[in-house]
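Pair request: fold both.
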Amino acid sequence: MQRKKTLYDFLYNSLKEQILTGCYQYGSPLPSASRLCEIYHVGIRTVKDVLAALREEGLIRTEERKTAVVLYRPRRTSDENSILSYVLERRTSLAETFQTIALLMPPLFSFAAVSCTPEQLEHYEPFRKYIQKGSGDKTRRIPSNLFHDLLRETGSLLLNDLYASLEVYAQVPLVLMCEEDPSYVIPEEEKRRLAAVAELLPGKQQEEIRKAFFDLYAPVSENIRDCLQQMSVRFPNIQELPDAAFSWTPERGRDHYYTQISRDLIDKIGTGVYEAGTFLPSEANLCRQYHVSAATVRKALSTLNVLGFAVTQNGRGTIAILPDDQTTFRCMKDETYKRDTLLYLSALQLMAIAIRPAVQLVFPLMDASVQERLQNEFSRPDNIPLASIFDCISELLPLQPLRAILDGCNKLLLWGYYFAFYSHGIRSHTQLKELSLHAFRCMQKGDSAGFSDCLSQCYCHILSIVRSYMIRGGLSEAKKIIIPYDTEESV
């Protein structure tokens, strides 16, 4: 089982890393407590506890009703420069992260932009004033605030968290550029590209907005790559860390051991590994299988009982069942179940968009041997074609950060939730299977655009089915999670 990563750990490590590497420099304010809550999707108690811990370590100063101020001063000599070492030890990973941002964020921002109005963007006017001010700025925080506003309007529980994680990891090289050249300011050309974005936000011209964001990020990615190459030549003694990599944990704070087990069992019940009406493995076997205590297994089984995926009979064991509408709708009153469901819908929304740039990178690598392997997997009665295709894409992806994002999302996609809607479970002939197999046929024909479109439609289809069902069951928050693309396209 994976070790639980708490929201406290994430916020603490994120802020501490930004302070130690100079992203927040001596004398500069941290974001307000309410802004930290919004960016990191944590409660005010978590923020206060983290700020208290950083204060105790002497990294920040806090006062009532004022934002915290950084007290830490990083070392300055070139042979001891912590920022320089941090960057060059991660130079390949950082270059790939900027490349991932340039590929992934433009379609995410353009999707978000067509879903909101200027009134919903709290930082729209400060952003326009920032653009009009001209040269002299070093900070990118004002654009960042607006971009967080955009992502919030999609209804997703994941997009702001993802963007914050990418920002935190990627901003250190930008700090280093200021360290190396104290006169550095954001280039005028970048300001012009930001102005082009400002002119289009918000709006319905999704492709134009996507292109404007791509034109903004792509040159930054190239500049960072070139800068890292030059710095590595200047400082050859700083070696790369072999295991340095971008990471993102979308289930952070919700990945208790018993939750991981209950999700896995739901997946297996819904997909028919454990058929409805049959007994699940005994408590002892589940303890051995998941390497956890009996108390943890009992808590997981209790969760299945509450959610309507199992019935435990004293002295006999636990029987797998498929939940009826009444049970599912009753569960909507449970905050944990509601949160998990919204997280699941958010993951589908993100996958529908992120799969397209992933396909753009891997399609040339999906040769005859890959197609033959997939065809063999499709012939298995318990196979989920979309899952097999995704696994292939993940294995072939050359960009580690994009792979980490897709894999993190995929962990939240329990196929059992979808197939539980069908009486024959995984063996049902569903529109999802038709779409997935049509995507495969596009792959065989060399139709990259058709392949990408079909895969995106697969995730939109699941999102549409489950979202509509949950809204009917009383989960009104699901209405906020917007479906990225039209799900009625024919195959």
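--- second member of the pair ---
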Amino acid sequence: MKCKRLNIVCVVVWVLWAGLFAVAANAQPVKAQPDDTVTGKPSAPATRTRITTFGPASDPTTVLRSARSIFVRSNSLLVKGAVVEDKLQKRKEFALLNLSVTRDLNSADVILELRHDLFTMYVYTAVDRRSGLVVATGKLSSLGGTVAGKVAERFLKQVVKARTGS
């Protein structure tokens, strides 16, 4: 019987405690109005204007459509960035899309990052350098082909899809 009462008391205390936090979270602070020292009347409240600015492009498709230069970064010991660069440049879509590979991080439009995940899995991520927006991702296995070739193929497929809209 004691245990049952203790559980009921715990539930009631928890509900009250949660209710207090909910009330505190919804509470609005009271804004004090400064008084005009000359007339003694409250002055007009100050107004604020919020200006929201976005980077050059806030849409992944827009970034992929306008990207021209790619910087490749590999965090894998088994697949170097230079190999991914080579595989990208050897694909016919690369030239047709008017893309180029750069070794200068600051002049790149998109950063293509590759990392080794678990066992034979690899993850690639394409990030807009200016805004930090992730514009393309993919996960692939090293079984049945080279990782660099698969990354190049899948990333360029995403770029083609963004540019053609299909």
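Observation on the second member. The beta strands are 69-74, 100-101, 110-116, 121-128, 134-141.
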